Amino acid sequence: FLAAALLASAAVAGCSSSDSADTLTPPQTASFTGSGFPPCPAQTGPPLGTPTALPHLTLPCMDGGGSYTLDRAPAVPLVVNLWGSWCPPCAKELPVMQRLHERGAGKVEVLGIVTKDSASSSIAAAKDLRLTFPNVFDPQDTVERALGRISLPITVFVDPTGRVKGIYNGIPLTDATLRAQVQKYLGVDVP
Fold first, then answer.
1. 20 to 30 Å CA-CA from 164: which of 15, 22, 45, 179?
2. pTM of the predicted protein model
3. Helix crossing, 88-103 with 175-186: angle to 10°?
4. Quick one: which of 19, 16, 18, 66 has its CA closest to 41?
5. Which of 149, 92, 165, 93 has its CA nearest to residue 116?
């Protein structure tokens, strides 16, 4: 009974946060050795620090080097997908994100945010799904909480100025529905 009570109180404590976008802290470091992920996408300009941007948070790139500041302007339109290896709808949607990454090269970038997961589990899942788009690591679900969402997958559409143009949080996207969202929010046609 005591163990269950402690787990319940830990779960409640983990779900509520008084962090604001200005005080978010980066997650603890993890080993990304052998991840196979490419480097994070290029960014331009300083952090925006506005309510229309992703939270001001720097996360480690899962390529084993570097970091990515979420509220900086990307070099091209960006589709950000929050996922975890433990999430069955994510496993269904990630191949769709991979195909967008391949088909949208040069027009739109895809960035994964590994959420509430371990480095080893997410790397194994990415290898099983043959993911080759860049990912950053957020094991404490800081971004999910900052977006005010409680379930995965979450897809965020960011224009080249760094502004969030739309957020999708529903049933797993298909190739057709993702293409439609990319066109709607980012004005980019992807084959």
1. 15
2. 0.80
3. 60
4. 66
5. 149
